[in-house]
UniProtKB/TrEMBL annotation:
Pfam families: Calponin, CH. This is Transgelin. Residues 25-134 form the Calponin-homology (CH) domain. SMART domains: CH. Belongs to the calponin family. Signal peptide: none annotated.
Length: 188
């Protein structure tokens, strides 16, 4: 592990392996390439966990990213490598991401990145931000988001729909339960 914490063991180690198994190097690489397209950094866009963590852990690149998408989103980017300053950067990024339209369930906790607990959630957040970027005239990644398609029905159309018996209710077409027996048959 890159930080100075003791390695996890037992159930904690098993839980961490499960979280790590969801991490996709391809998606992480796509995210880093998108970040480079917008910010000009990083040089190495390899999606392996070590590189992804090293590139993003201090939060400065994340802050530059949101400031490039919408200038002035993060007022002060801490260049210091002190833990609490880096965590402030990550928090500032998360707040900016929410303001740019990333839903809360697609963001991550600061420790997910800083303590390398769940890098997959960082990838999910960047993917979500990448989908929002086109709203600000920037290149986007991932699938295009769906747009609202509101339908307005008249009262008459709504009443007509109530009289239809949907096939979702099903039909048994004369079926019965004869011939069905559960368990063992009776032996005499």
């Amino acid at each position: 592990m890159a930080n100075n914490r003791a390695a996890k063991s037992g159930l904690a180690a098993e839980a961490q392996r499960k979280i790590n198994s969801k991490y996709s190097e391809e998606l992480a690489e796509e995210c880093l390439e998108w970040v480079r397209q917008i910010t000009g950094e990083p040089q190495n866009t390899s999606g392996d966990m070590d590189n992804f963590f090293e590139v993003l852990k201090d939060g400065t690149l994340l802050c530059k990213l949101v400031n490039n998408i919408k200038p002035g989103m993060v007022k002060k980017v801490n260049e210091s490598k002190m833990a609490f300053k880096c965590m402030e950067n990550i928090n500032a990024f998360l707040e900016a991401a929410r303001q740019l339209g990333v839903p809360a369930q697609e963001t991550f906790q600061t420790v997910d990145l800083w303590e390398r607990q769940n890098l997959n959630s960082v990838v999910i957040c960047l993917q979500s931000l990448g989908r929002k970027a086109h709203n600000f005239g920037k290149p986007s990644i991932g699938p295009k988001e769906a747009e609202k398609n509101v339908r307005n029905f008249t009262e008459e159309q709504l009443r007509a729909g109530q009289g239809v018996i949907s096939l979702q209710y099903g039909s048994n077409k004369g079926a019965n339960q004869s011939g069905i027996n559960f368990g063992n048959t009776r032996h005499m």
